[in-house]
Amino acid sequence: METPPDDAALPGPLLDELLGVAMDVARACGRLITDERPRDLVADHFKTSSTDVVTIMDPRSEALARAELARRRPEDGVVGEEGTDVPGTSGIWWLVDPIDGTANYLYDMGFYAVSVAAVVGDPHTARAWYPVAGAVFNPVADELYLARRGGGSFVETGGVRTPLAVGTRTELARCLTGTGFGYAPPSRAKQGRVVAQVLPRVRDIRRMGVAALDLCHVARGRLDCYYEAGVNAWDIAAGWVILEEAGGVLRGTGGQRPSRLLTFAGQGPALDELEELVVGLLREIDPDAPEPDLS
Ligand code: LIP
Question: Does 180 sit in the ligand 1 pocket, CB within 6 Å?
């Protein structure tokens, strides 16, 4: 596994401040998207394909996050899913997913989240950034997942804070396994072939539609492991630190950092077994690919 850059070792009081900001922003945006969700919500426009939906509340939530971050941390950079890209001078960047699980949100299925993470290193450079504090808030369940480097990982609900720890299952056959699918039809076709072969080898599959919450659920032991391709930095940044502080691992293939080609979450031999299985299936599907690629 890659080691974090040296400047990821920020002083404790700064990490506490960043975590506090992440929690406040995630809560504020979460309240906005539930309190002001129009009853007759429809897709406003589409991004990568006709299934990749954006509602009017996605940019509104991102605008609120951007304004709050500018007020609380004016020297930091901010990158958001809906196009925010504001450079900073502090070396700290914020990665914001204003509604993760937009399809669930569109259908008023109460399973979506706001993800806010502070990272060191430039998130425009795929291999250079590393999360140091983050919060993921599911406003419908009133569950706020939070962590900062070296401080442990927690979920707060109804004012009660509970520590998180990953599950301990060692055999993939007993693992409840999360996954997700991309929006492009050819990616989905490949992902469908792979999941058809994974399903008989695991306890069961869950496809919740919210990558940030998938990572939090691995951190909490509600899922044993997870894999997906095509995830963006804002989907995984907060969940990454929450998962690692709960004793878990987020990685790509062969000990590399997570990437859009493949991302795995979990721990121990079950995670190794999952990686071996998925990589083996991809080698059968596309023996000439330079690297295993599920995207
Ligand atoms: C979505 C994820 C979902 C994943 C999708 C997509 P969005 O984010 O969280 O779990 O499978 O590919 O990235 O579009 O709802 O913010």
Answer: yes
